[in-house]
Amino acid sequence: MISVEEARSRLLEPLTALGVEQVSLGDAFGRVLAEDIASRRTQPPFAVSAMDGYAVRASDVVDIPARLRVVGSAPAGQSYDRDLLSGEAVRIFTGAPLPAGADAVVIQEDADRDGDIVLVRESSVVGRHVRASGLDFRDGEIKLAAGRRLTARDIGLAAAMNRPWLPVRRRPRVAILPTGDEVVLPGDPVGPNQIVSSNGFALAALVTACGGTPLSLPIAPDERGALQRLAVAATGADLFVTTGGASVGEHDLVREALGAAGLVLDFWTIAMRPGKPLMVGRFRDMPMIGLPGNPVSSMICALLFLVPAIEKLSGLTGQPEPRLKARLAAALPANDPREDYMRASLLRLADGTLEATPFAKQDSSMMSMLAAADCLVVREPHAPPAKAGDSVDIVLFGSYAFPL
To answer: What is the mean pLDDT of residues 97-102?
Structure first.
């Protein structure tokens, strides 16, 4: 058995970012930039007012109260196109260009107007309430770097930079092949010795949330020829994922059947719990991950291996979810040689400390416990007994919906 870290490194090392395509700004949310993005304009393109008020010459409002003659108006989208002379003011609104000759804005709360005369009650200085040209960014300045997953904020910035189309990495196509005579699709008749399949749907949802495109294949029965035919149907995908049939029992056929059809196996056991029977290799020029069949094992292995693989193909680094520190709420026994990922609830205490409570039942078939969990408590191989109050590493499940 190899460690989780070594397994992930060997999986990711041969993966490279997919090709580039151009997408419209409206379709770019959640995509990964393939190139640096430079602005096509200066923002703001000229000095503008940051407040509603009066554009003035700062030298005219040193001594207050100051009486100025209002010679015009500049709403947003319009301008006062004459030079502002000494003793004059222009009624101005947020976002409107500052008239030539003006160098400050007096906010309307600090002025009283009577006809064409405005009485300024507060002095100002050069640049007050003025947004200088280029305050945000300048023409040609790079503000979005390659390798960034685009958030809603990034979309707004790209729009402001006048970039209606963006070069992004192609979405990874991930073929998902559930296996096993014992599983049937939700809604289908369930035999006396069968269970309802959840892995394929959960994995497809995770792939979508990570920015990939899931290609869901039918459930492959435990029969060599059928398994091979369905696996071949995945040809052309960027990543091939199987679930089930990866252990060492006589009905676990994935390794044997696909080995005869072109699978080149790198490794197939990992020193972790849950998820020991995990395969990594290449099948017909596709990188392949063979996930365990138990639903919890499948999803935890997907979190640790499938998500980084999708991210690497998408042009990201493929780094795993970062570990945080939490305080144990209950004692734990010593760990065995496998790295353990325990489902747990998580609370933030009044002092800001995170407190993790591992569930009493950790069976790898219990999807309800996985759905209820807030995090995974990670225990290193051969970790000694831990008592309540000890510090432990935790892994959050991540926010794979492209946060704001």
So the answer is: 96
